[in-house]
Amino acid sequence: MIFLKSNEFFLNSSCPVTTELRTPQEPFPEHAHSFEEIIIVSAGNGTHVMNDIPMNLSKNYVCFVKKEDRHLFDQVDDLYLSNILFEKDKLSLNSAIKDFMPYDSDDDHGWFINEKAAKRVDQLVEQLHVESHIDSIESQIIAQSIFQQIIVELWRGKIKDINLLNNNDKVIFALSYINQNYADLNEIENVAERVQLSARQLTSSIKKLTGMNFNQYLHYTRTSKALSDILYTDQPITEIAFDVGYQDSNYFSTKFKQVFNLTPRDARMRRTCR
Ligand code: RM4
Ligand code: NI
What are the alphabetically sorted keywords of the record (predicted)? Predict the structure, then answer.
């Protein structure tokens, strides 16, 4: 897998934030980075696969990608992105801002923003783009303060009222809702109700976007999360099963095997063999 390093993108090692404007974003293979990334969609559509889970992107969707995340862009259709790259440990943030930065895995890491916020963010990104590419103390300080403004605008502009979204965006909202609540979800009806679409409509749209039906997508999301916990933590498998939403660990094993063609136990063995 490709691993992108800070020195390929940032002006110098003391510079904690920079921009990459993708107009458009070309398909980009799976990669991880030594920095964090905020993706702001300003136009177009595309598939965004993060930690193996497919999502769709459309205008005004915002997504936080952490260091440990892997992601790729595919099936892009005039997808315009403002990517903000940053190194969180190097930022000197105002202490109040810290609450606005999504870091924990439980935090919301993707949402739509309203058009007004999007316009303001656009302007800020433009300024950030200039300042973050100037090698001076002044510009670096200004860049960091613009970065903080962007963070707050993204929060303030977050769309909570689902009725402000069109049907396509409701489906994207639904996918992001499933990604963030997979452990407590069982039925498509609950998601459909949350996004105010009929279960029928949502079923066929999810299928169209991801190639999976709701149940497949849900189990896929749960087991993918479980796989990464099996590989990268020491948590007992039964506990992982429970955390991702399975009450019965045998059932979890069955679903896991359907997706990865190996049992959770085998997956853990592979880890210890590394
Ligand atoms: C790529 C893509 C990636 C980003 C790099 C810097 O085109 O947008 O997500 O990490 O640029
Ligand atoms: Ni990236």
Answer: Activator, Cytoplasm, DNA-binding, Repeat, Rhamnose metabolism, Transcription, Transcription regulation
